Give the backbone structure.
Amino acid sequence: MKATAEKTAPAKGHTGAGKTAKAAKTKQTLAKTPKAAQAPAQSAEKVVKDVKDTSAKTTKDEKARRAKKDKVVRDSFTMPKSDYEKLAELKQRCLDGGVSVKKSELLRAGLALLAAAPPKRLIAAVSALDTVKTGRPAKS
């Protein structure tokens, strides 16, 4: 039993009071140091917390935006050269207006306009088009 009593007794020179004395000295040292010296440490912690909060918000916003987007589908189609040139003209008109636009964006804008048009207007627009042979054009 003597062996167990020796193990539980604190080592020579080490008491539990030593730990509290160190903590008290640290508090006293902080109290003596000017508040200006303490402020950068506190503000740094605050900045880190703010950055973490904003980064968490942006990732949530990005995930929400990504979830709303449709999948992109790649397709090819045939159109008369005159219609293809109209795309170039429309791109130039957009550039003149201060907006940079791609051909695919112009086509999507046209689809949006046709989708918003009344059925009679849509049918009239489609009827006014010449039919084009599908497939790749012959090499010339």
